[in-house]
Amino acid sequence: MAEINRAHLSAGARTFCTRVLLALILLTANCFAQPSKESPYFARVNTFGILAGYSGDSSHILLGDAENRMLLQIGASYNRRLMLNRRVNWQYSGELLPVALESDPTGVFVQHQTAPTPATFSYDAGPLVSCAPDSESYSYVDPATGVTYSGTTSISCNGRRWVVGEAMSPVGMQWNFMPMRKIQLLVDGHGGYMYSSQAIPIDNAGSFNFTFDIGAGFEVFRSKTKSIRAEYRYHHISNHGTADLNPGIDNGLFQVTYAFGH
User: Fold this and answer.
1) What DSSP letter does each residue of the chain carry, written as one string?
2) How far is CA 61 from the centre of its chain?
3) Other C-beta atoms within 10 Å of 77: how many?
4) 81 and 45 in contact (C-beta within 8 Å)?
5) What is the pLDDT of residues 79-126, one digit of tens each?
6) How far apart are CA 139 and CA 149, in angstroms?
7) Which residue from 1, 24, 44, 235 could staple onto 213, CB 3.0 to 4.6 Å apart?
8) Burial class (CB in 10 A: 0-12, 13-18, 19+), 137
């Protein structure tokens, strides 16, 4: 009788275990069958970008004094999401610019001699801080001959040179607002350096410069993973007193970035 009871209990236990196993299998299959809920945010965790920036002029915006400088930058960017909520997508942002071209206006120095005989002499003045024409009169006596020389000298811009360089901005942040929308307003800022093949923006100003920028614009998402950013930046270049001269450059830079990631 005891053996019959044990057999009956064993069969009941096996039936119970089988039913539990089937229930688990059905529950698991149902979970996999249900589609995962798509994130409502247009915000990637890792973002890579290809960028191009251009400025056709410079002036004294905040810190720089060098005028009429042009800037062209081509490179890549990387963003890493740090915080995300309904209001803001806060990201680390870094940029690598293997192509950083800077253009300076070059000047000419002209001497108009009126005495002792009329004559005109011109000399290359190199890059100038400002292209505003300047002239002044001169008169002096040659101590060796006693002859008086007089006339006027003038300096002005008459050409342009392009300087090849490269730059990197490893320190940066970007904030996108309203990340649930396809069109998002953004602000960003970066800090780094620029190295050029010649001293910029004038001779004796140094070929190694520090850079920083502050910008604002918008980002348009074509999908969850791809977007286009367009922004305007205040961009500053300065050697921070590490060279003999430091006029600095302030540019208003327009930049476009094609961004993708996951």
Assistant:
1) -HHHHHHHHHHHHHHHHHHHHHHHHHHHHHHHHSPPPPPS----SEEEEEEEEEES-B--SSS--B-S-EEEEEEEEEEEEEEE-SSEEEEEEEEEEEEEEEEEEEEEEEEEEEESS-EEEEEEEEE-S----EEEEEEEE-TTT--EEEEEEEEEEEEEEEEEEEEEEEEEEEEEE-TTSSEEEEEEEEEEEEEESS-SSSTTS-SEEEEEEEEEEEEEESSSSEEEEEEEEEEEEE-TTSSS----EEEEEEEEEEEEE-
2) 18
3) 24
4) yes
5) 999 999 999 999 999 999 999 999 999 999 999 999 999 999 999 999
6) 6
7) 235
8) exposed
In whole angstroms, give the CA distance from residue 254 to residue 256.
Answer: 7
Residue with tokens 């995962």: 36
Two tokens at 33?
């069958």
pLDDT digits (tens, 9 = 90+) for 136-146: 999 999 999 99
Q: 46-105+161-261: what fold? A: Porin (2.40.160)
What's the whole-model pTM score? 0.81
